[in-house]
Amino acid sequence: MAAFGLFPKKVELQALMKFYDVDCDGNIGYEEFLRGLRDELTERRKCMVQKAFGMLDKKGDGAITLSDVAGIYDVSMNPEFLEGRKTRDEILTDFLSNFEGRSNIAGAAHHDGVITW
User: b/e string for 87-96 if b means 16 or more Cβ within 10 A?
Assistant: First the structure.
């Protein structure tokens, strides 16, 4: 959070943990974090997401691509990478696909590897 210029107070961190740490293990796992992001955004959370989006959108074109994420997301400790099951690009692509939105009315999700606001 500090990397994004966010310095929450202790009470705010406690609220984040209560909201995101669904299994109450004292950690916010990747899936817990994503599940929390997919809920309806309050204005404050929307501002946080906009700030993070802006930092990831290196070209300022309103789109986050694999190359934008590659410079920030270090896959070197990912178990699938360490075990040789997935390449760096496969892990980054999987990561991006989590943010590509919900399915449309026909039930098909739009997955093109580009995240837009």
Answer: eeeebbeebb
